[in-house]
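User: For my dataset I need records formatted as: sequence, then structure tokens, nothing else. Please produce one.
Assistant:
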Amino acid sequence: FASGIGCWYSLSRTDELLDFYKRRFVRIMPTYFCFVLFWIIFRMHTIPLAKVDIWGNILGIQALTTRGEYFNWYISLIILLYVMAPFFFALAKGIDGTARQTAVTLFFVVLSVAFWKTTVPVIVLTRFPIFYMGMLFGKFSMKGGEIGKKTGIIMGLALIAGALLLKLFFSRYMGHLWSRGLFWYPFILIT
């Protein structure tokens, strides 16, 4: 969500995609490389890692292959979201109206359902709607918009519904949580 907001503001400042990607790289990668190198050294002492696993994790693509040992699916997600950010930006910029924006968000939810039983893709794809919602929030906040009473109530009810679903999933459907991404869908409502 926060990355969606940040990317909205960043893409609003420039039409130069190379500039956008350069800023993202400079902001994320130095910290990431420090962390991932430390983590790989730690993991090598606890689990044997093949060279392909090490390089795949350093480059942030190992989680997308679903082969070998991966432990940083998040950077794979960030890379995908940043590559797709101009598309999300254009989509959010070109769509007005709550019903249309909700329909696009639901499309991203339905897209993720097709990847149930494939752990990493569902982990990644269930975050697409949240990233898109961050873009919409960035757009809305740049306009200086205020949340009306009716919208505030709907948002509050969605938050409560998401929290209740999360509790239900944890208490009753623990076996299905991981394989179908049910850990992450409630966060769409909460967001």
